[in-house]
Design goal:
alpha/beta; Rossmann fold; 2 domains; six-stranded parallel beta sheet; 7 helices
Length: 201
């Protein structure tokens, strides 16, 4: 009997082109901006101080609201596409017995939309969808969940999360993105990969 590996996968900009396909097109049209994913160096605040309403800079809470509303507008439209080769790679994990879950820090208002999007693009290759909600009043962080759920592998794009999860003795495959390329931290449990095509377990 093969040993099933529990693989957890982040969603936004790891398995889904959320910002590129969902958020930036709406924000650029509404606020006359020219945001582009390849020049995004701070994923925690993708808008920086470059959008305002009534000539007043938008606070963090409003930015989060805009981000969430942009994602919700995609419901039933499926403009937000999977990251290249993520579907094929996750299907491969599933076929050799990997137990693939998705783990996100998305706001709870996205709890219905998110599994719908995953089922549409990944079918039955993803067993569960977990929300840490650590930014929205939740108590469980991503690293807590990885530890409690006995994850062996986490696929992530955020260096801060990667470092937290790596300390839980979980192998983190960190997808190369503009916002993590300048981060110089290292950990023996973090392996940088250029793309999903480069993931070989």
């Amino acid at each position: 009997m093969i040993q099933v590996e529990r693989i957890l996968v982040d969603i936004d900009e790891t398995s889904a082109h959320t910002v590129r396909d969902g958020v930036y097109p709406i924000v650029n049209a509404q606020y006359w901006t020219n945001f582009h994913i390849e020049t995004t160096l701070n994923y925690r605040d993708v808008f920086w101080d470059n959008i305002s309403e009534g000539w007043i800079l938008i606070p963090t809470e409003r930015k989060i609201q805009i981000f969430n509303e942009a994602i919700l507008q995609d419901r039933w439209k499926n403009h937000i596409q999977p990251i290249e080769w993520s579907v094929e790679t996750i299907r491969g994990f599933h076929e050799w017995g990997g137990d693939v879950w998705m783990l996100t820090a998305r706001h709870p208002i996205l709890k219905e939309y998110t599994p719908e999007w995953i089922r549409h693009h990944y079918g039955d290759t993803v067993s569960r969808v977990l929300f840490s909600n650590c930014y929205h009043g939740g108590k469980r962080t991503k690293s807590d969940i990885c530890r409690e759920e006995n994850a062996q592998i986490m696929i992530e794009d955020d260096m801060d999360y990667a470092l937290e999860i790596a300390r839980e003795k979980v192998l983190v495959l960190l997808l190369r993105k503009p916002w993590n390329e300048q981060r110089k931290e290292t950990h023996r449990n973090i392996k940088r990969v250029d793309s999903w095509e480069d993931i070989d377990l």
